[in-house]
Structures are given as structure tokens and as C-alpha cells.
Amino acid sequence: MAPSSPTLAPVASPPTVTQTPSSPAPSTRRGRLLALDGMRLVAALMVCLYHYAGRGGTISGSWGQSPARLFPVLPEITVYGCLGVQFFFVISGFVICMSSWGRTLGDFFRSRVARLYPAYWVALVLVTAASFVLPVVLKPLRLDEFLVNVTMLQMPMGVPRVLGVCWTLWVEVRFYALFALLVVARGVTYRRVVLFCCVWTLAAVIAKSAHNELTEQLIMPDYAPFFIGGLALYLIHRFGSDLLLWGIVAASWLLGQSSATRGLWQPGMHGDFQRDPRIIVLVVTLCFLAVAAVALGWTRRAAWPWLSTAGALTYPFYLIHEHLGWFVIRVLHRGAGLPAWTTLVVTVLGMLVLAWLIHRLVEKPLGPRLKKGLRRTKLGFRSPRLGF
Fold it and tell me: Which of 167, 176, 281, 318 has the fewest CB atoms inside 10 Å of its own CB, making it the most exposed?
């Protein structure tokens, strides 16, 4: 809902609360991100194929019938693609912990704003323009609703979404806020991250049983285990394995697989898009294992340059693929009469090309400028501790 081969950090004593360990060496960071970039694209493609061929609803209107009728076997696989979101959250926990190390709260805020908003604003404009051209696929929102979407706060405001994937961005924003206020503001250290993971896990379990809307919004019990698992896996990468960290990862996996299964499967489900609870558990397990492989340095050979491009495409691709893809599918399949498989491949490739253009023409030039402009902003006070 947010960039030479890595080496496993030697087992080290946890830093004291007042210490702020230095960032990993640039070569280590680059290699690690290349592996994670590939995983991020895999997660985005999982979600994309779920939206195109793993569900019913609006996409059935674009195809002219249920994807389960057009692709007899594919939906049995793509129906699990929605778990790409949970995969994103594990990766996000790892990356946010890594990127915030040694940075101030101001640095963290500026980097997140510069990373999230430029591509997001362009995606809003593109999808809104498409909704006016072909409203049969997606009805355009009123002006006041569109303007609230510009803030990325439409979910808590109860305003309709321009982008269907916005709900995951709202989950990510809340994670950023929790981690920033409780960890980054005081300086990221081993002990503070561990304490944050343990307290958040306990709070998530309590919030789940409390059935209180406010606490569920703040604590996010259904998604917290995935972020927490990612945070702990980064500590394993940075400081080496220890029983406490692997215990946090194990608890996160146990709670996460339960949350995912309860959310995606109910006994007696019927219809074209049924899920097997055992496969849900398997997919969640693979998500944790993939990031664990990065944490342990097993992906050090995955340093192919194209992975960097893959990572750069992931966020804009994730933003635009759903609704714009539905428009393209309707035009190509129902309008131009292209075969279903051809339409599917062309649509995915087209969204990847458009994502590259957004990255090249929007994110690369505007992101650094936005970050630089925020650095010059006068907040009316200066706090050395918070780093504004």
C-alpha cells in the first residue's frame, strides 16, 4: 500500500536504547532491494491477475461473461492472487524498517510523501478521465468526491474511491503513522523495533476480541501480523538470527495465516471463485518464506539489473492496473473482438508500459522536487529530537 549482493550481517549484540546503528553498506542495500523489487512485482502481478481473471463483478461486464467461463483453469490459480496484498505488507515491514534506520521523523515523512503522491495523483486523473470516456465500466465521481480522493484520506472520510486499490494505501498509511510516531520519532533501534512488534502483536489480538471499530482502525488486527513479520525479518537480516526474532516471525505467520483464511474462506462457499483454506495457508507461508530468504541472504545472487526496473514499475502499475485494465479489456475483447488470452496478455503488458511512463515522466522528476520542497517548509518550530 512504497529501491552487490547482500551478505548476512554477523550476529551482534542488540544496540542499547540510546544507540542508532549506522545504515547498512550501500552495496548491501542495493542487492537486497533488487531481490525485494522482484518480489514486489510478483505481488503486483498476483493482484492484477486476480482483478482480471480471479473474481466476478465489474470485470465480468468487461469480459462479457465470468472469467471462469473464458479461462477454465486460470481462475483456479488467480483466485488466490488477492493474497499479493499480504505479500506487499510483509515486504513493506522489511523495507520501511530498513529505510527509516538512522533517519529523522522529518526525513521519514518527506520520503513517504514524495514516494506515494506523484504517481497516485496521475493515476487519479487517468482513471477519472477514462470513467468519463466509458462510464459503462466505471461511473465518474462528483467533483467534491474526486477532490477528497486527492488527499488519499477518502477511506476514513467514507467517500467513494477513484482507485479500487486505495483501501490498501490507507492500511499502509496507518502503518507508517504508527511506526513513525512510536519508533522513528525516538530513533530506530533494535530494542525499540522489537518492543513495537511485541506490543503491536498483543494490541492486535486484544483489538480483534474487543470488536471496537476505533481500535480496529488504529491497530489493524487483520494486517498487523504481516507488517510485524516484515519488521522482524529485517532485524534478522541486520543483526543475525536469534530466537526472539524468529519467535516474532513465527507468531506473525501463525496469526497472519489465520486472519487471511478467515477473511477469504467460509465453510459452504459456492460459486465460480472458491478458495481452498489449505492453499490460502500455503500462499501466506510462501510470502513469509520469500522475505525470509532475503533476510538470510539467500537471494544474494539475484542481482540482475532488470529487477531494479521491475521495482520502479510496481507502485504505478499497482495503482492503475485495476480500473484502467477493465477499460482496456472491454475495448479489446468486446469492442475489437480480440481473443480472451490475447486481450489478457496485451492488457497486462500495456499497463506495465504505462506504469513505466508514469515512473519515467512523473515519479523521477517530481518525487525529488517534492521532497526538496518539503525540506524547505517552515513548520514554525524546530525539534532536534524529531528532526524537522
Answer: 167
By C-alpha distance, which of 53, 44, 42, 56 is closest to 76?
A: 53
Q: What is the pTM of this model?
A: 0.89
Cα 12 to Cα 21: distance, rounded to the nearest angstrom: 11
Distances (CA, A) of 33 to 145, 181, 231, 296: 37, 25, 15, 14
Q: Report pLDDT digits (tens) over 78-128.
A: 999 999 999 999 999 999 999 999 999 999 999 999 999 999 999 999 999
- In 10 A of CB 278, how many CB atoms? 10
The Cα-based distances of 34 to 41, 197, 231, 314 in angstroms read 11, 26, 18, 13
Q: 107: alpha, beta or left, given left = phi > 0 and alpha = psi -120 to 50?
A: alpha
pLDDT score of 377 more than 50? yes
The 10 Å CB-count burial string (b at 16+, else e) for 189-224 is bbebbbebbbebbebbbebbeeeeeebeeebbbbbb
Q: Over the stretch 241-280, which tens digit does the pLDDT of each residue have?
A: 999 999 999 999 999 999 999 999 877 666 678 899 999 9
Distances (CA, A) of 164 to 129, 170, 318, 325, 387: 15, 12, 10, 12, 35
CB 225 within 8 A of CB 259: yes
Task: Quote the crossing angle between the two packed helices 84-100 and 166-182, to the nearest 10°.
Answer: 30
CB 120 within 8 A of CB 367: no
What would the grid cell of residue 137 be?
Answer: 465500466
Q: 132 CB contacts (<8 Å, ≥6 apart)?
A: 140
The C-alpha cell that represents 240 in the structure block: 543475525
C-alpha 28, offset from chain centre: 22
- Closest CA relative to residue 88, chosen from 155, 37, 34: 37
H helices of the chain, where? 26-53, 58-63, 67-70, 74-78, 84-100, 105-133, 143-149, 154-157, 166-182, 190-210, 213-219, 224-239, 243-264, 277-295, 306-329, 340-358, 364-375
